[in-house]
């Protein structure tokens, strides 16, 4: 991406590649130790005895890694003003140590905010896949952006 | 909590206190530096120039802190088997340095999983408030639990 994006730059149907990032066993355990210390996020043995089938990243860790890709691949070069929430998030497959996650954004639509002139909200469908091309996470997420004409 | 909870132990309407946790300026900046390096999550000055009104935690950091409260206050003493996703999450107010977050769970309902005998899904509405009693985050989240009879 070479352009700095404002609200007007997100046409419905636009697809934006957000890049890739790997996650190590050490990172999975460190994140889980701090934020989600359930056994299947902390040890291979407990993971094998669970529905996850092996040591697997906390879903919140997957979400945080996705966020980093979103900042590096889009928001770092855009007039983003935060997000009010998530409409729907699905953890579709476990994320295991040394998986490489790739994220993609699709613009579903957008509208100017009447309550906050100069801002618009863009609705995105984000997808995260692993190195085998399997979907591991999807989320629908509205994000606020400054409009071009008022941001100059 | 002194009991180990299974699927059958979550009657609709049950309210469970999940405890409290504070977040420091250093933690806000460390999390954001790794996962969400947008300016308003990294410096007071950029935060003041944003909709957030000051240095504010990444929404994913708030979610991760909530998750830790959920594990310490409930899942650490329950037959939890992970979660398929989030139905809806709202970041309602910014979380600032030295805020103390308190989380609460309300059981909305539950049903056994036909596709996976011995498991049930419980639907929760979680709320996170700050030290002033303001709601900062709400999320609706289904979580899987082993049933009592098959888990013995």
From TrEMBL, chains A, B:
Domain MaoC-like: 19-114
Domain of life: Bacteria
Pfam hit, one: MaoC_dehydratas
PANTHER family with a match to the protein in the record: BETA-METHYLMALYL-COA DEHYDRATASE (PTHR43664:SF1), MONOAMINE OXIDASE-RELATED (PTHR43664)
Name of the protein in question: Enoyl-CoA hydratase
């Amino acid at each position: 991406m070479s352009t700095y994006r404002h609200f007007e730059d997100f046409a419905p149907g636009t697809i934006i590649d957000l890049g890739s990032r790997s996650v190590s066993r050490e990172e999975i355990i460190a994140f889980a130790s701090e934020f989600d210390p359930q056994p299947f996020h902390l040890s291979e043995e407990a993971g094998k005895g669970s529905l996850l089938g092996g040591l697997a990243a906390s879903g919140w860790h997957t979400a945080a890694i996705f966020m980093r890709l979103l900042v590096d691949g889009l928001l770092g070069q855009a007039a983003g003003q935060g997000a009010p929430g998530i409409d729907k998030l699905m953890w579709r497959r476990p994320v295991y140590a040394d998986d490489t996650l790739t994220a993609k954004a699709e613009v579903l639509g957008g509208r100017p905010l009447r309550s906050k002139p100069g801002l618009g909200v863009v609705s995105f469908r984000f997808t995260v896949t692993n190195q085998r091309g399997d979907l591991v996470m999807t989320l629908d997420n509205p994000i606020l952006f400054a409009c071009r004409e008022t941001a100059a």
